[in-house]
């Protein structure tokens, strides 16, 4: 396993990590599972992506919205950010 889930926490809705008093009301989650890309390698930057399973459901807000992932038919040469 490349990473242990217990070493991570996720803070969502935080708009300025240097302060604690912003109006966004960030929420912190524990990571229960790390699902790394099957061909992940610590060498280089290819396949350096993972999904994090959180300890509770995430609620959307003004500052927390889902990310859009590419579909399975997207050509591998396409560049997305």
Automatic annotation (TrEMBL):
Residues 6-73 form the Peptidase S1 domain. This is CLIPD3 protein. Pfam families: Trypsin (PF00089). Belongs to the peptidase S1 family. CLIP subfamily. GO terms for biological process: proteolysis. One of its GO terms (molecular function) is serine-type endopeptidase activity. InterPro entries: Peptidase_S1_PA, Peptidase_S1_PA_chymotrypsin, Trypsin_dom. It comes from the Eukaryota.
């Amino acid at each position: 396993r490349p990473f242990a889930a217990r070493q991570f926490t996720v803070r969502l809705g935080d708009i300025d990590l240097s302060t604690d008093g912003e109006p966004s009301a960030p929420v912190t989650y524990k990571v229960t599972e790390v699902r790394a890309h099957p061909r992940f390698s610590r060498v280089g930057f290819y396949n350096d992506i993972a999904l994090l399973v959180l300890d509770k459901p995430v609620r959307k807000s003004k500052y927390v919205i889902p990310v859009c992932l590419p579909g399975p038919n997207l050509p591998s040469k396409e560049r997305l950010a």
